[in-house]
Structures are given as C-alpha cells and as structure tokens.
C-alpha cells in the first residue's frame, strides 16, 4: 500500500466586516457551502477534522472527525454520516495516505486507522503508547518513506514519532525528538516539503520547528501581541499548499474572536489576511463560531478546483449543542483575501 496525497475545497461570497479592537485590519466574510450531520447531543463534542482524498474517485473522498467523548466519525463530502468508530476519548485526528492517527487520552496512546479506498471504510488497527499522560493534539507527516506523527501536550511538550511506511501497520513508531514551548499547545501541522512543523501555543501564538536540525529551537511565526488577528485561544492550524514548496498559506483559528488568520507558508510568514465564516440564510447554514480544529486540502475535488477547508463549529447554532463541521471552498477564501 502506498500513500495517496491530494485533497480539495467548498463555499460562497465575500464581504467586509468590522474587526474587534485588538485588530485594526479588514476582516473578510465568506460563507460555508455545506456542513456535516450534527454530532447529536449536548456538550463540547466535536473537535478536529481530517480530509482524505480518494484519488481514484475524488467525489468519494471522506472527512474523518473526532467526537471527544466517543471516537472517530466519518462523513461523505455531502455531509452525511457514514461511520462511528468508538475508540475512546480522542481529541485530534490527522492522516497521510490511507493511514490516520488520533490522540487518545482514554488510554494515553496514538490510535491508528486504515482507510480502505475500495470499500470507503475506516477501521481501527490498533494503538501505540505515548508514555506520557493526556496526548492532546496530533498531526501526521510524510517524508519519503517515513511516516511522522507529532503529539502535543498541555504542558507545552511536543513529541515527534516516526515509522517506516512499509511497516507502519506494526504500530511500533520510534520517538525521535521532544521539543518544548512554555505553555499549553494543541494544534499542529507538518509542512512535509519544507521539513517544518507548525504548532500553536494557545495563549501566545504560533511556532515553527525545523525538522532537519535536531538541535534547532522553535522559531516564532506570530504572536497574539503582534496584533495581526490572533487571539487566545489559538487553536486549529493547517496548510493550503501551492504549486511549489515556497507557495501556499498557513491558516490558524483565533478561537475567541470567531475568525481565521492567514500567513505565507514560508519565512518570514507574512500575514495575508483575516476572515470569518458567516451565516448563509439562503441555504440555511449558520455561521461558524469558536472553531477548535480545522483541516485544508489544496487538491481539486468535484466543483472545488482550489481545494476545501473544513472547520469545527461550536454552535450549530446553539453553543455546545449538536456541534458539526462546516465546509468552505478555498477559492472563495482566496478571492476574499486577494491571495494568489
């Protein structure tokens, strides 16, 4: 089995909104084009999505998402629920190719999943120990034949694990490196092509970690204090990758302000704009608030030539009740912010 690496997009129009006082620039408003079925029940259930692109049939691509009380939910691109996989209290999920990973703090393990491109089913293939309590955030990366997993913790620790793609299903990754930032972190994303890991420190900002230099200290990408649009908590982060290794954008959720901040993917990580996801009364999709996890793909999907962004919505429309995930066409975001 070899990895499949492409993904996609979904959403409508853009307008200008007034930003909170801590940020003086413009805020674009975009609309979601679709949403998933709700996670039935009350409480902070939904957290983090991951998009799997089916290269043989892009219309049959999937969205994996976490229910923090139960496990992994699987959705079709039309938003319909396909599966529930009860593996425990998983917080974040990510994937590379046909292998997904989730941070499982019921057992302090990495939970591993296989995505079958023929049957379009997701199966839990087992767990590997983290040897540390409460794994929080997680992200997956792939460099050559090496599958990487980063796990973040509330004490600011980042574990970076790796395993060979050929033996990934043995569930025996090696702990390669431990990195520390001062306070709580959750969201992370690998930039595979540039050997870089981005992590968010929720009360401070965003850091970049050089994966080629085991002794390199994390480098600041942006801070809440800089006034570029971040606020606490800084939560989900993901990448929209461009045509080459130097193009594309990093996107972070500024949770308390119900908005998203966009940066250049490469140093000096220039801020490129801020947007929010508003209510679309015409199609009956509410606006997005208090986003925790998010994922982005730049792979084309049907009707989405520039890819797809999927975000967690805290209120659907009532806070912590029937939470779900909204889908936004990346081309709408690019147009709203004047991105290349």
Question: Can you offer a commentary on this structure?
Answer:
- This protein is mostly beta strands and 340 residues long.
- The chain has a single domain, classed as TolB, C-terminal domain (Neuraminidase), CATH 2.120.10.30.
- It contains one helix and 26 strands.
- The strands form six sheets. It has a six-stranded mixed β-sheet, with helices on one face. It has a four-stranded antiparallel β-sheet with strand order 3-26-25-24.
- A hairpin with a 3-residue loop joins strand 25 and strand 26.
- The longest helix is centred in the C-terminal third of the chain and has 8 residues.
- The protein is globular, with a radius of gyration of 18 Å.
Write a concise synopsis of the structure shown.
It is built from 1 helix and 26 strands. By secondary structure, the protein is mostly beta strands. The model is unreliable at 1-21 (pLDDT under 50).
């Amino acid at each position: 089995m070899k990895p499949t690496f492409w993904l996609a997009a979904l959403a409508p129009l853009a307008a200008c909104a007034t930003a909170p006082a801590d940020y003086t620039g413009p805020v674009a408003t975009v609309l979601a084009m679709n949403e998933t079925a709700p996670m039935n029940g009350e409480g902070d259930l939904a957290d983090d999505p991951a998009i799997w692109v089916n290269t043989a049939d892009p219309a049959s691509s999937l969205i994996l998402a976490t229910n923090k009380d139960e496990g992994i939910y699987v959705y079709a691109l039309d938003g319909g629920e396909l599966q529930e996989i009860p593996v425990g209290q998983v917080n974040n999920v990510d994937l590379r190719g046909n292998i997904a990973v989730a941070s499982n703090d019921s057992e302090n393990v990495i939970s591993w999943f296989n995505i079958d491109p023929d049957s379009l089913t997701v199966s839990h293939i087992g767990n590997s120990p983290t040897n540390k309590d409460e794994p929080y955030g997680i992200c997956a990366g792939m460099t050559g034949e090496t599958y990487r997993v980063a796990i973040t913790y509330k004490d600011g620790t980042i574990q970076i694990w790796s395993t060979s793609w050929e033996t990934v299903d043995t569930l025996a990754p090696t702990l390669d490196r431990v990195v520390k930032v001062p306070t709580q972190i959750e969201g992370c994303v690998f930039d595979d092509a540039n050997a870089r890991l981005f992590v968010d420190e929720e009360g401070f900002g965003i850091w970049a970690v050089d994966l080629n230099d085991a002794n390199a200290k994390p480098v600041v990408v942006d801070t809440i204090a800089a006034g570029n649009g971040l606020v606490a908590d800084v939560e989900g982060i993901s990448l929209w990758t461009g045509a080459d290794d130097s193009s594309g954008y990093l996107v972070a959720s500024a949770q308390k302000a119900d908005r998203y901040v966009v940066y250049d993917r490469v140093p000096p990580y220039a801020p490129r704009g801020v947007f929010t996801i508003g209510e679309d009364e015409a199609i009956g999709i509410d606006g997005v608030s208090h986003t925790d996890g998010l994922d982005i793909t730049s792979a084309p999907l049907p009707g989405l030539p520039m890819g797809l962004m999927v975000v967690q919505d805290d209120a659907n429309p009532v806070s912590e009740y029937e939470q779900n995930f909204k889908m936004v066409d990346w081309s709408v975001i690019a147009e709203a912010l004047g991105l290349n």
